[in-house]
Amino acid sequence: MLHLHAVSTERDDDGLMLPPLDERRTLLDQLVALVKARGPAPLLVAPLLEPSPRFFPDRWQGGDGSLRRLVRRLLGYAGLGQLRVEVAIYDADPARRGEVLGKPSSTRGQDLVVWLAGIERDLVKIGAEGSAMVDPHTIVAAAARVVAHVYRRHFGLATGDAFDPRIDLTGVYLGFGVLTADAALRYTVRTAAGPMQTRRTPARLGVLSPQSLCFLLAAQLHARALPRAERQRIGKLLQANQAAFLRHAYAALDRAEPPVAQQLGVPPQEQWPPAPDLAALTVPFTDDPDAVLEARRDEDPGIAGVNAGKPVFRVERSMAARLGRTLGMGALMLGGVVAGMKGGLQLDAGTIPMIALGLGVTGLVLGRFLRESRCSEPRCGAPLAPGDRVCPRCRGEVVGVIRHPRERLAAEEAWRRAHPEAGEPDPSESTPTVAAPPVS
Q: What share of the chain is helix, strand, coil (3-state, %, to 5)?
């Protein structure tokens, strides 16, 4: 059992910054076991990967080939560049998804967006959700975690399932800690029910907490005896929370006795192996020519072109309701801001609603003389010019006029009865799921 005597006396404000003491001891014990099994070289001299073109120079074309190049690059950093890679990206749409091979069941309430589907001799099979490619931080970090899984399997290291926390630990050991610690917990801001409502949605990667991954990364930086300026630079690559976890972890390890390097069994620096040549590790893949084009999965076309060749309708109605609502609500909001300003206009409590009501009625009256014309497709709603025969956004063929979008299904059914040559709609057609590039 390793000793962290001084760590147990950390300040009270470290409580949320560090994993529990027993977990810290377990993490270091497992790291020692990995160093004994595979040697200290990756922990001490492997490149600490950063999400930049310097470490990921490969072109990104948004498809299966791009993900394959990413995994191959990570395997090279892990010393497994001789392995071949086969990838499959699965669409979220059940009609396009097909049979998903090798994806572990999310029995622990966690779901893997990139996973190891299998290893056959020198062939590594990787599966990925198309949604993972939307976020560059997610796809790179998730691929790095999978390569850590491959590493353990390839060298026969004890591994439970795909949710084994030792996979996360191995990722730090291999130099992937900056990527995986930063992606362990991220928040994305998404629009909720209304345009003025947003919510922060957590996105998790791996099994270990951000505090535990940052603790392991701090142990690696401590073992390497990196100067303070370099540690600070690495901290700036992380989100604010993870950067704080890293600082507190490093300070706690500074107080550990015996020193962390000694506990990990790290040899003196003069006995370290030479660091790998980064230029050699980032040589372009000559067996993957630029001429090969991929089906892009990194551009979100939204509704663009989804109705090409299909019937849509022109929804024509007055702008009375829209204009009245816009003027009335706008007056209420602006009046509230003005009334709350120091030195601003002094308005009675009842004045603002009266002004808003007046403007709302004015909008209703004026709007009766104005008409708007929009596409009936609910996901589109693009404005249509009087001469448009094709919707400029969804590319649907404008075949008639209706008064409200809710009439579109009945109108389409009547149109198809009148035009049997058009055939029935294909229920399997839907908008493809696409994605965004990783790091370069």
A: 45, 15, 45
What is the SS3 assignment for 355? Answer: helix
Give, in order, the Cα–Cα distances in Å from 297 to each of 67, 113, 128, 294, 374. 10, 15, 12, 9, 29
115, β-bridge pairs: 127
The model's pTM is 0.67
CA–CA gap between residue 46 and residue 273 (Å, rounded)? 10
Gap between the Cα atoms of 424 and 270, Å rounded: 75
What mean pLDDT value characterizes the chain?
Answer: 81
Q: Phi first, then psi: give them for residue 191, nearest 5 degrees.
A: -70, 135
DSSP state letters, 157-214? ----STT-HHHHHHHHHTT-HHHHHHHSEEEEEEE-SSTT-EEEEEEE-SSS-HHHHH
Summarised one tens digit per residue, pLDDT across range 336-371 is 555 555 555 555 656 767 766 776 677 667 656 677
Q: What is the pLDDT of residues 72-98, one digit of tens each?
A: 999 999 999 999 999 999 887 676 777
Give percent of the chain with pLDDT exceeding 90.
Answer: 45
Give the number of residues written for the chain.
440
Task: Collect all residues with Cβ–Cβ distance below 8 Å to 331 and sequence separation of at least 6.
Answer: 352, 355, 356, 359, 360
Nearest 5°: phi and psi at 224? -85, -10
Q: Across the strands, what pairs with 361?
A: none
